[in-house]
């Protein structure tokens, strides 16, 4: 397992830097923001992605199922005198707001690939968006080298092996349990991610079904966050491959989407 997954303060700061350099400018390029703009992140974790939005003076909200992550988010923001409202909740049980309390920007970063019923999930998100609001979604394509999140393995060998999450379910489970000797909780999480996988084509089918229109799509060959993680320069996927269904998934380490209500 990578050390940064254990050091949550470092994870928070790394996420904040990537968000400031890539997520916030990408959103502002298509959707102007001001002091009254309301920003919601679903699955916010420690809140790193929201830090640059809070520093810019926007009204910031974060929700996450993990209570410990919300506690950390409140702690990190408090130490930096940043304002943000954080709540621990299952988003699917979170009540839809009134029209006056809807959001200008909703952020869904590295979350959709963990959701089994993507159609119901994105349908619920729509209820939180202003009529002119925008939804920013980022996720790793399932077939990319580490689309199975196997980097969370505690076995340092298997955490670095690409594509082995694409093995048949039974063989994948056997390797995790008998060869890598992972803990039951880790195996359960990795098998759950395999069940919830999100190829590009599956995601675009979902957003079409819920009447969201694509304002922008960027497929990354080198994920912008890899600059913080590995010192690599971000690079977009070349256009010919980005338009080839299925094949593009193997080369896309992150998918950026900006979506609006039709």
TrEMBL record:
Keywords: Methyltransferase, Transferase
Protein name stated in the entry: SAM-dependent methyltransferase
Pfam families: Methyltransf_31 (PF13847)
Record carries keyword Signal: no
GO aspect biological process, one term: methylation
Organism taxonomic ancestry: Bacteria, Pseudomonadati, Bacteroidota, Bacteroidia, Bacteroidales
Transmembrane segments: none
GO molecular function annotation: methyltransferase activity
Recorded superkingdom: Bacteria
Residue ranges annotated for the Methyltransferase domain, each copy included: 37-156
């Amino acid at each position: 397992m990578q050390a940064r997954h254990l050091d949550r303060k470092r994870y928070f700061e790394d996420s904040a830097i990537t968000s400031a350099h890539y997520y916030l400018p990408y959103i502002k390029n298509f959707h102007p923001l001001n002091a009254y703009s309301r920003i919601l992140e679903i699955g916010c974790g420690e809140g790193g992605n929201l830090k640059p939005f809070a520093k810019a003076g926007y009204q910031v909200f974060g929700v996450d199922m993990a209570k410990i992550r919300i506690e950390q988010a409140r702690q990190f923001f408090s130490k930096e005198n940043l304002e943000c409202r954080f709540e621990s909740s299952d988003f699917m049980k979170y009540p839809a707001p009134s029209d006056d309390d809807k959001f200008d920007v909703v952020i869904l970063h590295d979350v959709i690939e963990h959701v089994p019923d993507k159609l119901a999930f994105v349908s619920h998100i729509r209820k939180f968006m202003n009529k002119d609001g925008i939804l920013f979604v980022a996720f790793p394509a399932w077939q990319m080298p580490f689309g199975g999140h196997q980097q969370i393995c505690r076995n340092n060998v298997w955490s670095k092996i690409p594509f082995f999450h694409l093995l048949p379910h039974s063989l994948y489970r056997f390797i995790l349990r008998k060869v890598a000797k992972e803990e039951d909780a880790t195996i359960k999480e990795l098998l759950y991610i395999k069940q919830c996988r999100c190829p590009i084509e599956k995601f675009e089918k979902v957003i079409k079904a819920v009447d969201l229109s694509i304002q922008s799509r960027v497929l990354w060959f080198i994920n912008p966050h890899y600059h913080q993680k590995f010192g690599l320069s971000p690079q977009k996927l070349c256009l010919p491959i980005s338009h080839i269904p299925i094949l593009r998934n193997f080369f896309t380490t992150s998918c950026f989407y900006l979506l609006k209500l039709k």
